[in-house]
Design a protein that fits this description.
alpha+beta, SH3 type barrels, 5-stranded antiparallel beta sheet, 2 helices, 29% helix, globular
């Protein structure tokens, strides 16, 4: 199953390439933030944002409460383990 998993942007790694580091349940990975930036919300303002991450892209911003509820539900369903394993494998690449 492919799904968007909530994570929090902890740093901007490249403003020019629109890349940021996102942490999901203690796992950190670099993702593309092109889908969530615009003139009103530039890359520098994304640090601290909660986002839905899917295949290396931050697809949308969500609020922290929604992120935590979603992570809780995913953990209960056991889905998050598969996604975290995939992120860990991708982080080593």
């Amino acid at each position: 199953m492919c799904l968007g998993i909530p994570g929090q942007i902890t740093e901007i790694t490249s403003e020019e390439m629109l890349m940021a580091r996102v942490t999901v349940a203690g796992v950190s990975r670099e993702v593309n933030i092109a889908c969530i930036v615009d003139d009103a919300h530039p890359p520098a303002s994304c640090v601290g944002d909660w986002v839905l991450v899917h295949v290396g892209f931050a697809m949308s911003r969500i609020d922290e409460e929604e992120a935590r509820r979603t992570l809780d539900i995913l953990e209960q369903l056991g889905e998050v383990q598969e996604e975290l394993s995939a992120m860990r494998q991708g982080a080593g690449a």
